[in-house]
Amino acid sequence: MCGGGEDLLEDVAVLVGLSDEELVTRSVGGDTESFNQLIKRWERPIYALAYRTIGREEDARDVVQETFLRAFRGLSGFKGQAKFSSWLYRIALNLCRDWIRRQRRAPVVLAPDGVDLVELAGEAEGVESADDAVARKDLSQAVARAMRLLPEDQRAAIVLKEYHGLTFQEIAELLGCPLSTVKTRLYQGLTVLRKELARSGIHSARNV
Fold first, then answer.
1. Is residue 155 part of a domain?
2. Which helix (H) or strand (E) holds 51?
3. Which residues contact residue 17 at a Cβ distance below 8 angstroms, ignoring those fewer than 6 apart?
4. Which residue of 22, 91, 186, 199 has the fewest CB atoms within a 10 Å radius of its CB?
5. Domains: count for the chain
């Protein structure tokens, strides 16, 4: 029994060390544990992307589940021309856009107060004072409110660049638009965010 447990740990350690593309190759070959590793690796970023795009926790979770379901079904069609993460982001963004189109026909339920976007993205690290925690919570709420005012294309550009660290070129390829368009959307969106944050008494959008 002990030997079997050690073998399992060794297998998991091997999977953790593989690249996304190597895990995809193994998944296509029928290795479900490799795909499970991809889910563990990208579940949190995809959730953060979905939540920041549509602003509802439950629906963001649904987007995550559907994203990986579609990814699994479409693995054989992934040819590696783009990074696996970019391919995954594209699936999630398309699902978010579908959700937004549907919700335009009905009232949109806004994100609940107290949701911490920074924490959701896994960016909150270390120990902070109570005052710092309150300030960060207030900033997160202000950013969430301001983000909901942005057009879908500007919000997507900001989320992908500022939160997920994609390059302008990667965003252009992901959204299927010229590089200059991505830069314009980002600049216009950040300008609106800064104005809205200033109205809330926050005079720096550095943490957006």
1. yes
2. helix 32-54
3. none
4. 199
5. 2
Measured between alpha carbons, how far apart are the two ends of the chain, in Å?
A: 50
Find the DSSP H helices in 74-199.
84-103, 117-120, 130-147, 152-158, 168-175, 179-199
pTM exceeds 0.70 for this model: no
Residue labelled with tokens 């830069």? 183
Cα 143 to the center of its chain, rounded Å: 16
Instruction: Specify if 46 maps to a domain.
Output: yes
d(CA 102, CA 195): 29
145 shares a domain with 96: no
Task: Read off the CATH number of the domain in which 200 is found.
Answer: 1.10.10.10
> Is the domain of 155 the same as that of 90?
no
**Does a structural domain hold residue 114?**
no
Q: Which domain range does residue 144 map to?
A: 129-208
User: Are 100 and 24 in a shared domain?
Assistant: yes
pLDDT digits (tens, 9 = 90+) for 47-96: 988 888 887 888 999 999 999 999 999 988 887 777 888 899 999 999 98
Does 208 lie in the same domain as 152? Answer: yes
Residue 118 lies in a domain: no
Q: Assign residue 158 a region (left: φ > 0; alpha: ψ between -120 and 50; beta: otherwise).
A: alpha
The pLDDT tens digits of the residues spanning 187-204 come to: 998 888 888 878 877 654
Residue range 98-137, pLDDT digits in tens:
888 877 633 343 433 443 433 433 333 343 444 454 455 5
Q: Say how many C-beta atoms besides its own lie within 10 A of residue 196's C-beta.
A: 19
